[in-house]
Design a protein that fits this description.
Helix content: 10-25%
Distance between the termini: 32 Å
Number of strands: 12
Number of helices: 5
Shape: globular
Strand order of the largest sheet: 3-2-6-9-10-5-4
Order of helices and strands: EEEEEHEHHEEEEHEEH
Strand content: 25-35%
Structural class: alpha+beta
């Protein structure tokens, strides 16, 4: 029997995304965002509020990066979610992370995180119910250590952390349990009978 839990954000897993942008002085600011998703083969949408320092920076610079947080850098990723650039001017320095300028956009790449998408700002959607930053992915950088023999990102090597909104926990993703567009193939045949 199912139990009613009320109104909660009951979506699992959620990504742990490190969103970075430069301010007007070229200082990197990075925030932790779980509410984001791919919205086309070359587009990403981040549901982040206008009040974030990073959002302000994205609006001004028209560029940003999105990195996948990993288990090895969980403390730094969590710090980027706890601290706010609006109140802590040296937030990036305090993280102990290292910044490199994006190869394709004017936005910071956090060297410690193994996979980073470089994005150009396409639009900011601002309605009564939604504030979303939409970007065009112009490049993806990945450390060779997380690539498989075919040059693709291997989730089991990535050790990406995922966020649990039910109990505010971090978990590691990576175990492959099936093949997409194949696991349900037998049901296609069964449905025809």
């Amino acid at each position: 029997m199912k139990k009613d839990l009320g109104v909660i954000p009951a979506l699992f897993p959620m990504p742990v995304l490190m969103v970075g942008a430069y301010d007007e002085n070229g200082v990197p600011c990075v925030m932790n965002a779980a509410w984001g998703t791919i919205c086309d083969m070359d587009k990403i949408a981040l549901i982040i509020s206008e009040g974030h320092k990073t959002t302000k920076n994205i609006r001004e610079s028209k560029a940003f990066t999105v990195a996948l947080a990993d288990k090895e850098h969980m403390a730094e990723a969590d710090f980027f979610g706890i601290a706010t650039g609006n109140k802590m001017a040296d937030k990036f320095i305090r993280s102990g992370c290292h910044e490199e300028k994006g190869r394709f956009v004017n936005a910071p790449v956090v060297a410690e995180f193994p996979v980073t998408m470089e994005c150009e700002l396409l639009e900011i959607v601002d309605t009564d119910a939604l504030h979303a930053v939409v970007g065009k992915i112009v490049n993806v950088q990945a450390d060779e250590s997380v690539l498989d023999e075919n040059g693709k990102v291997a989730p089991e090597k990535l050790n990406a952390i995922i966020f649990d909104q039910f109990r505010s926990g971090y978990y590691v993703a990576g175990e492959k349990v099936g093949k997409a567009w194949n696991a349900g193939k037998d049901l296609m045949t069964a449905a025809k009978k």
